Amino acid sequence: MLNVWVVDDDASIRWVLERALKQGGMSTTLFEESEAVLSALRRDEPDVLVTDIRMPGRSGLQLLEEIRAKRPRLPVIVMTAHSDLDSAVAAYQGGAFEYLPKPFDIDQAIELVRRAASPGQRADPTAAESRRIPEMLGHAPAMQEVFRAIGRLSRSSMTVLITGESGTGKELVARALHRHSPRAAKAFIALNTSAFTADLLESELFGHEKGAFTGATELRRGRFEQADGGTLFLDEIGDMPFDLQTRLLRVLADGQFYRVGGHNPMKSNVRVIAATHQDLEQRVKAGGFREDLFHRLNVIRLRLPALRERTEDIAPLARFFLQKSARELGVEGKRLTDAAIARLVVFDYPGNVRQLENICHWLTVMAPAQLVDAKDLPPELQPQTVARPDASPRAVAVESEAPMAVRGDAAATLAPVATAATAAPADGVGASAGAPAWLDGLEQRARALLQSGEPMVWDTLTREFEAQLIRSALEMTRGRRIEAAHKLGIGRNTITRKIQELGLDEK
């Protein structure tokens, strides 16, 4: 039977893990703080230790450091409710077996404990400083995978290919990979390969000798020489001219190159991190990108999620950017109302994080008051007002601020409508002007039930409403219940109970 020690100052976490581990056939020993663990380790040793990071006294990371010194083969799983890059990198660099952000799925945690205890698993000790990158904070599972990858790569200099839409923060990730690597003390050089013509790009990359071409009045060191011992970040690698791809491949293969106009081979020890918003596999098939270079770059691939895939991170990012903008301009930081945050969260962000940052700069300058309301947001975030083609000029329909995908029986309740109700109710009561359009559909459904003599109108509509909310959240998170619960603002147990009550598992 596996013996698992759990360290957390939160009694509820200890209670949940104790029962889950016992149901999984494991024995448990519970601790409230690190000192008791270190004392117990003098007499005994578990198969796996699970610890929180932030606790009174010694933190989980300090405990991890002590364990690495005294019990280097003991697998340690680090839990934290502060799901940021700092925590992930510090955990991995401290030698943790795995990093587990809260809230976590119990089944996932149990499986992780079993993997940690399996033969051959071992975490090597190390120590390093990590610095905070607020722009990369994120609770979204996709961002947690990015944090984990940066942590796992923190002791290596492997080539990395970063993919993702424009504005998702690819250079931020590249800088984090460099900063948390053995090359951190050396230079980080960034170059956007799409910003130069082929001839200029060759000179930028490899440098040139004096007199190599008209205007080359002196010797110039290229980016490979400047980044020697450090990291070279090649952004938009998919736009690199085909002939230069051949030269880049040669450098990646043996670290050797020639300056433009030069005859003496140069050597450079550089870690290359490349990034692109394009589909390189398709570029290879179309003949625009060398297949051998693609495989040389595609050693480790990190995909950055679009901002619309991590909506839970929009509010904290917006607050951070507002404070950052205020510091830069020397003014008091603006604050967001709940209505403004709700509008920000449902926006699509084709420009991703970069667009959100620009919106916050705009608000810092243009918003009339310190408290920013939905009406103060820039025009692209305002609901569109569209005239009905078959209506009088004064009759308009207001686009839903947060349209929902609908399926099943709830379609009649929540389907967004393209036009306003064709006729006002006899008693003059209806959805107020400017209200989200789906309320018209809700009103029609409610009236139909009331007129039919349905005895349980309230319960019927409530069930349909809750079912549609949960369906939409599960569809958006591809069935991940914990993530869906987080998006809805309810607990994991609540969404599980509701799914059972509403019979959604059967659909």
Question: How would you concisely characterize the structure shown here?
Answer:
The protein has 507 residues and is of the alpha/beta class. The chain has 20 helices and 16 strands. The protein has four domains: 3-129, Response regulator (Rossmann fold), CATH 3.40.50.2300; 156-305, 3-Layer(aba) Sandwich (Rossmann fold), CATH 3.40.50.300; 310-381, Helicase, Ruva Protein, domain 3, CATH 1.10.8.60; 402-423 and 431-506, Arc Repressor Mutant, subunit A (Orthogonal Bundle), CATH 1.10.10.
Topology:
Elements: E1 3-7, H1 11-23, E2 27-31, H2 34-41, E3 48-52, H3 60-70, E4 76-80, H4 85-93, E5 98-101, H5 106-117, H6 141-152, E6 160-163, H7 170-179, E7 188-192, H8 198-206, H9 223-226, E8 231-235, H10 242-254, E9 256-257, E10 266-267, E11 271-276, H11 280-285, H12 291-297, E12 300-303, H13 314-329, E13 335-336, H14 338-346, H15 352-366, E14 371-372, E15 385-387, E16 396-398, H16 411-414, H17 438-452, H18 457-476, H19 481-488, H20 492-501
Parallel strand pairs: 1-2, 1-3, 3-4, 4-5, 6-11, 6-12, 7-8, 8-11, 13-14
Antiparallel strand pairs: 9-10, 15-16
Helix pairs in contact: 4-6, 13-15, 18-19, 19-20
